[in-house]
Design goal:
The complex is a heterodimer of chains A (778) and B (288). Chain A has 778 residues and is α+β, with helices and mostly antiparallel strands. Chain A has a domain at 418-466 and 627-778: Aldehyde oxidase/xanthine dehydrogenase, molybdopterin binding domain (Aldehyde Oxidoreductase, domain 4, 2-Layer Sandwich). Chain A is built from 20 helices and 31 strands. Chain A has a seven-stranded mixed beta sheet, sandwiched between helices. In chain B, a hairpin with a 2-residue loop joins strand 12 (196-205) and strand 13 (208-217). In chain B, the strands form four sheets. Chain B has a five-stranded antiparallel beta sheet. In chain B, strands 11-12-13-14 form a four-stranded antiparallel beta sheet, with helices on both faces. By secondary structure, chain B is of the alpha+beta class. The longest helix of chain B has 20 residues, at 264-283. Classes of the chains: A alpha+beta (778), B alpha+beta (288). The A-B interface holds A 114-116, 119-120, 123, 276-278, 644-645, 647, 685, 689, 697-698, 700, 702-703, 705, 707-708, 710-711, 767-769, 772, 777-778 and B 1-5, 39, 43-44, 186, 188-190, 192-193, 195, 260-263, 265-266, 268-270, 273.
Chain lengths: 778, 288
């Protein structure tokens, strides 16, 4: 039996992309497209008294200048998803009409023959701005007297929710130790190398809209555009061509994207909008801006008697569309302490409006902060008890054989493996030797730190859990077809953004059907070519798309064997299909799949004794699993802090993850490594710097510090496989685990390094300046 | 991120460039490596009506030695400076600084003259030019003049170059016998502009250091000489001065400005630490 599932294959599109032959959004050929550029609010908060567009409209090459009033009849705007009931409702429009509430909000658009002319047009628009007091800094957002981010609201509190149960106050009094800490997480963004973009074409002749967009979910876009533009969904065609990274940035729908499609409808010509890097920084979703307070009651025996975790999330001026900005704060609290047995848990999420860019779902959504806060507190607990950090973890983990269970925060959890992952990472690290080396360096005045960060992730959004997110998660679908050469073409709803979805799906189909990997071609990202269904978000490609592919491959295999049985005059059960050849179980002549396919397509009369053979299947899957698919893992960081300069040198990083059945260990490891780079970015480098008046001051790749390859350590990746018991394939989501574990691993390692110096740091990114302040050097 | 419309004039000689500058004056900017100017134009922070492209000019590039004078033409690419044996022998400070200048792609295009004319306060080469007392050769239709580096840098992105003038070359005295140098900077990521840096020189005879000089960069609106720091260091020798005393001396020499990531206190601390590194390197035997 040929085995593709579990084999480490490189992505099948790597050569194409390295040859420069990929088709990204800007490569899509569109005849006669106009370029759209946006006038974006330079103010965090200001009334728009008047917009004068005549000078812009008069520029040679400018075709149309568009403001909110031009779009009002086409596109009515949208409200906030009530995924989290009680979120204060704020309506948005594609272009701001009378007031801008964050810097970068689109206010007007210019459609012109070239992007340069469109930008000239934007410069020529005159806006009479009436600046208003702005609310940017999160720390004071909810204080009485704080400037309102929306003038008609009395408070900036957008949402407040509690998680868990009240904790008996006596627990805090009776605990052997009570540990308390505050954490500051600053804003970051996803920075896909290919920026967002849309090419939209509306044909007045038949009312059809064709949209090419750098996005992860073509069918969702189709439904949303039908809703926003009042068009017949059946006449909308959406293609997501090759996508150069998403990291969550491209699962949302943005005002500038809706405006671009509305402009296409307004002027009846194809239009193209590609965000430049400056726009990406100011208008892509931001993430992670949180203040978290954690309080832990610890028994003398090391038991966690109670955890209280409260989060204040700054969500910007609106809730993201079509999801909800609240999610990041909610996940931070809900996932805190989940790897551990906790007697009592209480949490609270407050979400504040700000005159800042909208916060959305960036790789890991809340999970990195949950892990970082939890693991920092576990380290402090171990210190208070005088035990090794790994020992306290082992003692307090929910045992691997105790699942299924429900966390103290109320999450259903199943098939996790904290102890196995801990054992594996300690083995990979050779922890005893590492600690000896650390001690030797400390004796020489060199401060090295070792940090561990365990986590639980929730992956694979599905219909029952996320039905309230408008059109975000649908039943998934795939069609499989065998052509006369015996090649298999799969058209599936889960999409590809560079992570290798297509390769993994092809591996599953190859095994389920019984053909060589090379015979399977996977396409996705075209609403006219694939069944309706969800795209990619929340690490769902392998667990959901893989399960669907498995079911469809097996169904097609039954069809193939039935056809072959008719041809060979035997019972289907007497046949096997492996590596593209159908064989009789008892021996004797079989038939190759390509011979069979040739016969089916060109000589259907051979099959007169039975029903006509069917070398296609369409399969749909909206799973009924009891929960999102939880995964777990642990990461470790080994680093050196220069106590003179505050600089951190990363020496090595380890990750051990339980992704259930591994479809492709190479691609899983790539996902982990890329995610770790982003987690390290949040830990040490990345921060969107806002001035007090709400101006983003580092919106370039020179000033927003992404870690580069040369800044990153070698990363050792290990795996534990506990299959997801509710699916046949057993795969779990792998896309975000790297980002989730890295923040806490670096946080705990830096603090381990600082411990002999009597210093601690809980503000991220841990910049040299913050570390020097923690050390009292400045 | 597209520049405003501009007129591009390609010239093939310094005279041609001077004529274009004389004609267009303040509306014109020189395009050399373009590694700072072009991004600023794309952001529309800079919007010159005319760009005078000097990349095809003959006689503006190259590193030459005449007696004790080393001349770096304005168009000398960073890569050439970084790999020049002449620079390594006669201007060891520049050789120490070059590995910190930009990324490889930037070094292939960026020029010595461009870096000085752009006058980014966090750039390495202006600091070196100041410490080495370089002479900046400037030309125009009015003739040629020389400006000492100490008079050349006038403030943030501001130099002594007049609108009709072109930076032609920079000249340095070759290293004196017993001269030793040190160059240290701290950048968050390799190749980034430094959050602060120090260039240092001294005369070393046996174990003794004399004539110590420091230039700090990335801390004010231009590279700055630090005479109080140098006096403090000289007085402390052979021991190293205390960090607190260095910060005091530094405060006497310069009012440190923040950037959008670092406070003045942070920069002062880093400069003090870098001065200690520099003194250590100057004192070490076998150092260039």
């Amino acid at each position: 039996m040929t085995k593709n599932i579990g084999s480490a294959r490189p992505r099948d599109d790597v050569r194409l992309l390295l040859d420069g032959r990929g088709t990204y959004l800007d490569d899509v050929p569109v005849t006669g497209a106009l370029h759209v550029a946006f006038l974006r609010s330079p103010h965090a908060h200001a009334d728009i008294a008047k917009i004068a567009t005549a000078a812009a409209a008069a520029l040679p090459g400018v075709v149309r200048v568009v403001t909110a009033s031009d779009l009002a009849a086409i596109c009515h705007g949208w409200g906030s998803s009530q995924t989290f009931p009680g979120l204060v409702e704020r309506r948005q429009t594609a272009l701001a009409a009378t007031r801008a509430v964050y810097q970068g909000q689109p206010v007007a658009a210019v459609a012109a023959e070239t992007r340069a002319i469109a930008e000239d047009g934007v410069e020529a628009i005159e806006v009479d701005w009436r600046p208003l007091p702005e609310m940017a800094a999160l720390d004071h957002a909810l204080e009485p007297g704080a400037a309102p981010a929306h003038g008609d609201l009395a408070s900036n509190l957008a949402y407040s929710g509690t998680i868990g149960a009240n904790i008996d106050p006596a627990i805090w009094k009776e605990a052997a130790h009570v540990l308390e800490e505050s954490f500051i997480f600053h804003r970051v963004t996803g920075v896909p190398l290919e920026t967002r973009g849309v090419v939209a074409s509306y044909l007045p002749a038949d009312g059809s809209l064709t949209v090419y967009q750098s996005h992860t979910a073509p069918h969702q876009l189709r439904s949303l555009y039908a809703m926003h533009l009042g068009l017949d969904e059946g006449r909308i065609h959406v293609v997501t061509p090759q996508v150069g990274g998403s990291f969550g940035v491209k699962i949302h729908l943005y005002p500038d994207e809706i405006a671009t499609c509305a402009i296409a409808r307004l002027i009846g010509r194809p239009v193209k909008f590609i965000a430049d890097r400056l726009e990406s920084f100011t208008a892509d979703i931001h993430a992670r801006e949180q203040r978290v307070r954690a309080r832990v009651a610890l028994g003398a025996d090391g038991r966690f008697l109670a955890w209280q975790v409260d989060c204040l999330l700054g969500m910007g001026a609106f809730s993201t569309h079509p999801g909800s900005s609240v999610q990041e704060g909610d996940e931070t609290v809900r996932l805190a302490a989940t790897p551990y047995r906790v007697d009592a848990f209480a949490g609270r999420v407050d979400v504040a409006f700000q005159n800042k860019t909208i916060v959305g779902q960036y790789r890991g959504v809340g999970h990195p902060m949950a892990s970082a806060v939890t693991e920092y507190m576990v380290d402090r607990s171990a210190e208070a008890l005088g035990v090794l950090p790994e020992e306290l973890r082992r003692r307090n983990y929910v045992p691997d054989d105790a699942y299924p269970t429900t966390s103290a925060s109320g999450l259903p959890l199943d098939a996790l493996s904290h102890r196995k992952c801990l054992d594996e990472i300690l083995r990979l690290m050779d922890m005893p030797a590492l600690r000896l080396a650390q001690a030797a360096f400390r004796a020489k005045g060199v401060y090295r730190g070792i940090g561990l960060s365990a986590f639980i992730e929730r992956t694979a959004t599905n219909v029952p859990v996320n039905a309230h997110v408008r059109k975000a998660t649908a039943q998934d679908g795939v069609t499989l077809h065998i052509d006369p050469s015996g090649s298999v073409r799969a058209a599936i709803t889960v999409t590809e953004q560079g992570q290798g979805t297509h390769t993994a799906i092809a591996q599953v189909i190859a095994d389920a059907l019984g053909v060589p990997f090379e015979r399977v071609t996977v396409i996705s990202g075209d609403s006219a070519a694939t069944p309706y269904g969800s795209g990619i978000r929340a690490s769902r490609g392998a667990p959901v798309g893989g399960e669907l592919a498995l079911k469809a491959g097996r169904a097609l295999r039954r069809n193939v064997l039935a056809a072959a049985a008719t041809l060979l005059q035997v019972a289907p059960d007497d046949l096997t299909l492996d590596n593209g050849t159908i064989l009789r179980r008892g021996g004797g002549r079989g038939v190759r799949l390509d011979e069979l396919a040739e016969a089916v397509h060109f000589r259907p009369q051979l099959f007169q004794h039975g029903a006509q053979p069917n070398l296609s299947v369409a399969m749909h899957f909206g799973h009924d699993w009891p929960t999102l698919v939880p995964t777990n893992g642990i990461q470790a960081s080994y680093l050196e802090v220069d106590a003179r300069t505050g600089m951190v040198r990363l020496l090595h990083h380890w990750a051990v993850d339980d992704f259930g059945t591994l479809i492709n260990p190479l691609l899983a490891a790539e996902q982990v490594r890329g995610g770790i780079a982003q987690g390290i970015g949040q830990a040490l480098y990345e921060e969107l710097l806002y001035s007090e008046d709400g101006q983003l001051t580092n919106a370039t790749l020179a000033d927003y510090l992404l870690p580069k390859a040369s800044d990153l350590p070698d990363i050792t990746v290990g795996h534990v496989e506990t299959p997801w018991p509710h699916s046949e394939l057993g795969a779990k989501g792998a896309g975000e685990a790297g980002t989730t574990g890295a923040l806490g691993a670096v946080l705990t390692a830096v603090n381990d390094a600082l411990r002999p110096l009597g210093a601690k740091i809980t503000e991220m990114p841990m910049t040299p300046e913050r570390i020097l302040r923690a050390l009292g050097k400045i | 991120m597209k520049p405003r419309p501009f007129k591009l004039i390609r010239v093939d000689s310094a005279e041609g460039a001077s004529e274009a500058l004389a004609r267009h004056g303040e509306e014109a900017r020189i395009l050399a490596g373009g590694q700072s100017l072009v991004p600023m134009m794309n952001f529309r922070v800079a919007a010159p009506a005319v760009l005078v492209d000097i990349n095809a000019c003959t006689g503006l590039g190259g590193i030459t030695r005449t007696g004790d004078i080393i001349r770096l033409g304005a168009l000398t690419r960073h890569r050439e400076t970084a790999t020049s044996t002449l620079v390594a022998d006669a201007l060891p400070l520049l050789a120490m600084a070059m590995p910190h200048v930009g990324h490889l792609a930037i070094c292939n295009r960026g020029t010595f003259g461009g870096s000085l004319a752009h006058a980014d306060p966090a750039a390495e080469l202006p600091a070196c030019a100041l410490l080495l007392d370089g002479s900046v050769v400037i030309g125009s239709l009015r003739g040629e003049r020389r400006v000492a580096a100490a008079d050349f840098f006038r403030g943030l992105y501001t130099t002594a170059i007049e609108p009709d003038e072109l930076l032609l070359a920079v000249e340095f005295q070759a290293r004196r016998p017993n001269a030793v140098f040190a160059f240290h900077e701290l950048a968050r990521r390799h190749g980034d502009f430094a959050l602060a840096g120090i260039a240092a020189s001294a005369i070393r005879v046996g174990e003794m250091l004399g004539d110590i000089a420091f230039v700090g960069f990335g801390i004010a609106d231009r590279p700055v000489l630090l005479p109080s720091v140098a006096r403090l260091a000289a007085g402390a020798l052979p021991r190293l001065p205390q960090i607190a005393a260095l910060k005091e001396a530094l405060a006497a020499d310069v009012e440190i400005l923040p950037d959008n990531q670092q406070s003045p206190a942070m920069k002062a601390h880093i400069v003090a630490e870098l001065i200690l590194d520099a003194l250590g390197q100057l004192s070490r035997k076998g150092t260039a």
